[in-house]
Each structure stands twice: as C-alpha cells, then as structure tokens.
Amino acid sequence: MALKGRALYDFRSENEEEISIHQDEDLVVFSETSLDGWLQGQNSRGETGLFPASYVEILRSGANHVDYTSSSADSPSAQVTCYDSCSVASPARSGGVSGFLSNQGSFEDDDEDDWDDWDDGCTVVEEPRAGGLGTNGHPPLNLSYPGAYPSQHMAFRPKPPLERQDSLASAKRGSVVGRNLNRFSCFVRSGVEAFILGDVPMMAKIAETYSIEMGPRGPQWKANPHPFACSVEDPTKQTKFKGIKSYISYKLTPTHAGSPVYRRYKHFDWLYNRLLHKFTVISVPHLPEKQATGRFEEDFIEKRKRRLVLWMDHMTSHPVLSQYEGFQHFLSCLDDKQWKMGKRRAEKDEMVGASFLLTFQIPTEHQDLQDVEDRVDTFKAFSKKMDDSVLQLSTVASELVRKHVGGFRKEFQKLGSAFQAISQAFQMDPPFSSEPLNSAISHTGRTYEAVGEMFAEQPKNDLFRVLDTLSLYQGLLSNFPDIIHLQKGAFAKVKESQRMSDEGRMAQDEADGIRRRCRVVGFALQAEMNHFHQRRELDFKHMMQNYLRQQILFYQRVAQQLERALRMYDGL
Predict the structure, then answer these.
(1) Angle, nearest 10°, between helix axes 508-567 and 463-502?
(2) pLDDT, tens digit, for every residue of 103-123?
(3) Where does residue 497 rank: exposed (0-12), middle (13-18), buried (19+ CB within 10 A)?
(4) Which among 8, 282, 339, 553 is least surrounded, fewest beta carbons within 10 Å?
(5) Per mean pLDDT, which range of 313-322, 438-447, 495-504 is the poorest?
(6) The PX domain covers which part of the protein (predicted)?
C-alpha cells in the first residue's frame, strides 16, 4: 500500500532510475521497505523512481511516523557501508541504486583460504557493529562515542619550523558551513570533509608523524631517514593438508632486515587493503590482478612476480608508505604468533582516513590557495593526458607482443620454408645440382626460421617490461581523480566559509581554522604530486633504456645470424 512521505533534505538525481526531491516536498512512497537504503516512490511532479530512504520520513495518520534518519548508518551525513571509486581497488558506484561492482579481478581460492596459519580466518578489520563502515572500510566518525578515539584529548606541541595541523574548531558546537548531503561523495566518506570542518578530535598522543618540507619544486614528503629496498624472488608452489591446498610463496628479502620472509599473494592483498584503509591522500600502487584459473601456469607466475617487483619498488621508494608500521611488519615478521598480533594491531589502527591527516607536519611557508588550486588543475589535466597516452602505448605494445608471438613468427617461418623449398628443388636434377649453393640456401631458410623464434621470444626481454610499467602507472593515475576531488572539496569549503564570514554568519577564527586545515590537504596533495613526478621520471627513463638496449641486442643477434648465412655464399 502506498504511503505518504515528506522529504527531509534536497536530493538531486544522478541516474535515470532516481528522481530528485526537495526539502519539505510531499511524496508518495510505494513501500516502506528500503532496498540497500533506497525507497521507490513518486514526487510532487509525478516523477516515479528511487530516492534515499534516509532523506524521507513516512507520515502516518494517528501513529508515529517512521524516520529512516534514526539509524546512524543511513543518516545523510553518515558514511555508507559500501565503497565507491574513492579507492580504486574498491568497487565503484554503478547506476546509483543498481548495485556496486565487485573488486577488480576474479577470486583466487587460495586467497580465501581460512585454514592458513598466517591468517586465522579474518582478513578485514573488526569494526563496531553499529553505524556501518566508512570509506575504505573504517567506521564513520561518531564524536559522541567515547571509545572511538583515545580518552586523553590534549593539545600537542608543534615542531618548529613545522606546524602541526590539528582540529581546533567545533569543540562546543558544530561548524555552520553546509555539509554535503550526498553520502556517496568521496569527499564525505573519506572523512576529509569532517577534518576540514574541524569534526575530527585532537589526540593526546600521536605515535607517528609524517613531515612535508619545501623543496625546489614545491612541497615534498620528507625522505625516509632509513631508506631500504626489498627483492621479490623465487616464486615456489607449496601445498598444505597433504596436497589439498596449493599456493605460491614469494621470497622477500629487505635490505634492512637480517633474514628473508615468505609471503603469499593473500598477504600482499591484506597489506594493500590496510594501505587503502589508512592513506587517504596517497596514490597507493595497485597489486597485480587476481586470476581465477591458470594460477599455477609458469607464464602467469612469472608475470605476477615481475609486477610484484615493481610494486615493491614503489612501496619502498615512497617516503610515507615505506615507514608504515604495517608494511614493516609485513616485511620482517617471522613468527606466527607475532604476525597475528601485528596484523590485529594494524587493523585496529586509529590513525586512518581523516585521523591520518592529523599526523602531518607541514611547512610554515605561506601558499596562496588560488595558486595551489591552479597547480592542482594543471596536474589534473596532465594526469588525464598521461592516462590517455599510457593506455594508447599499452594498446600498441600489447598488439606488438601479439604480432611477435604470432604474426612475425609465422611470416619468418613461411619465408624460411620457401627458401628450403627452393633448395630442395635445386636437388631434383643431380648433374646440374650445386651442393654448396643448395646447402647455403637451405641454411638461409633455417636461419629465417630461427629468426622467427627469436621474434617470438623477444617480448620477454623488452615489451613485457614496458607493459608492466604501464600497468603500474595506469593504477597510480586512476587514483588521482578521487584524491584531487578531496582537495576540490576542501577548496569549496574554504570559499564558502570565507563568504559566510564576510556576511557575518561565521566567526573569522572558525573560517581561518577551515583554511588552515585545507592547507594540510593542499600540502599533502602537492607532496604526492611531487613524488609521482620524481618516480615517473626515474621509471620511464629506466623503461626506455631497457627497451632500447634490448632492441639493440636483439637486432645485433639477428644481424649475426644473417651474416653467418651470407658468408656461406662466399667462394661459390
């Protein structure tokens, strides 16, 4: 039976299945049973479709109405339990209410193995049951919950000449700046909006700090004081339970540790999800994709190893990611019991999402926010163009690999067979047969068949390295639109707060607090952009050098084969 409802907030439809509603608008609700937080009904303009259940109250004559906003999990300012494109490896919103995409790649049986001694059946953080999950899986901000943050909320001292950016505003009252009611917004679910508005409480003790300093190209992450590297070697198939379970183990050898450790792909996957959970404004490199079948084929194992090597190089080179306690635990822990303890500690880390922004120490140098916005816009255009060009080069390189393995190989085999046929024909009339010439032509045919095999094998030496690097950068680049969106949202809040301050609707000190916290996000994004460019220059230099060197060696080997065939005709 249709029910009467009233819109509590404005909602603008973004997909054809949805309809827009306006605050205080009368609605017809077809059923009060929500589907994943959505109701179906009709607005006052006769449009039929879906709208958020949390934006509506059901009106009942002679009875209490049903208010879907009573649930913290469904309130418009709360976080939702599903992910969207804010974290690239997480599902993206598809069609608004039509569902959410699953994680990229297909599942691997051994990655879901609950019998593994290194993982006692829990691969996700155990969150509070009430209120749902926020972005990347961490719980939504609940300032009234005393256990959500450390009990000692005391001020901390900044380190000169850096300043600690804390959340000073709204200790007694919430910010009057308007909030984004679109709970699907990455800006809302990441917690950055709450941080900008001063709703992330200070912490008495922050064990980890990450500094940003001014470099020749602007803000940059302060280098890891203890740099290291880590090799990924010896992928080995292992079994458990008398062969019932099989998996591939990789040998990891950090330069700063005394002994190697052995990790499965599922351990990499656990670490990757911890990274997404914690580092809101950092582009975390994607892991190599999962695969449902053929996981133990030699080519797939080798491809995954190559890409894990590149992934590890990016992790160890990042000044922030390389210092993460969970990453260090992943690289060094040898004891099963200690592994589980460290795993739980990482999963209960409070300095994630918005709270992670409290760990930054930023320079005291003044930066005009308009200049920062212009710099971000330039990088946004650059990253879009680079993403397009990386995709184009990847497509061309993949096609070239296909031709090397198939087309080129077949063409040279055909040419070699044709030379062989000529040699055989010359032997048909023995009195006029020239054995030295026949042998030379036959050798030429075999040479071109060998060249065809060389073409088929060559991508392993050059094009695979190109494709591996391009794949890594496709993942890194795909992270930036949402990271940039966080900065854009922060800029918008600064402009709104300043306008309200000019109109006398907000105290100037509160507007200054929003601007100050926006500087944190701005400095962090610029530091990440700076690091991306540094790695890009290094990676593409090495990629191109390796490709050209291998191409030169390849054609030198081909030329040597042809020169040997040519010398057989000397003296005939």
Answers:
(1) 170
(2) 333 334 444 443 344 443 333
(3) buried
(4) 553
(5) 495-504
(6) 228-338
Which CATH code, of 1.10.150.650, 3.40.50.11260, 3.40.50.2020, 1.20.1270.60, is assigned to 369-568? 1.20.1270.60
Residues 6 or more apart whose CB falls under 8 angstroms from that of 172 comprise: none
The angle, 0 to 180 degrees and rounded to 10, between the axes of the packed helices 265-278 and 325-332 is 170
Q: How far from chain centre, in Å, is Cα 458?
A: 31
Q: Which residues are annotated as a binding site?
A: 264, 266, 304
Q: What is the DSSP letter of 11?
A: B
Joined tokens for residue 199? 């709703």
Mean pLDDT, to the nearest integer, of 57-84? 46
> What per-residue string of b and e applies to 401-436 under the rule 16 or more CB within 10 Å gives b?
beebeeebbeebbebbeebbeebeebeeeeeeeeee
Residues of the chain within CATH 2.30.30.40 domain(s) are 3-58
Do 320 and 221 contact (CB within 8 A), yes or no? yes
Q: Regarding predicted confidence, which is higher, 516 or 201?
A: 516
Cα–Cα distances in angstroms (integers) from residue 87 to residues 103, 168, 276, 357, in the given order:
11, 28, 7, 17
Pick the CATH number of 225-358 from 3.30.1520.10, 3.40.50.1820, 3.30.1280.10, 3.90.78.10: 3.30.1520.10
Alpha carbon distance 181, 77 (integer Å): 6
Task: State if pTM tops 0.85.
Answer: no
CA torsion 354→359→365→368, rounded to 10°?
A: -10
Strands 245-254 and 230-240: antiparallel
Closest-CA residue to 456 (of 498, 407, 489)? 407
Q: Strand locations in 354-489, DSSP E?
A: 360-363
For residue 96, which phi and psi values (nearest 5 degrees)? 65, -80
Contact criterion met (CB below 8 Å) for 513 and 198 = yes
Find out whether 328 and 254 touch, Cβ atoms under 8 Å: no
Chain segment 273-294, per-residue pLDDT in tens: 999 989 989 999 999 987 766 6
Using a 10 angstrom Cβ sphere, with 0-12 exposed, 13-18 middle and 19 or more buried, the burial of residue 444 is buried
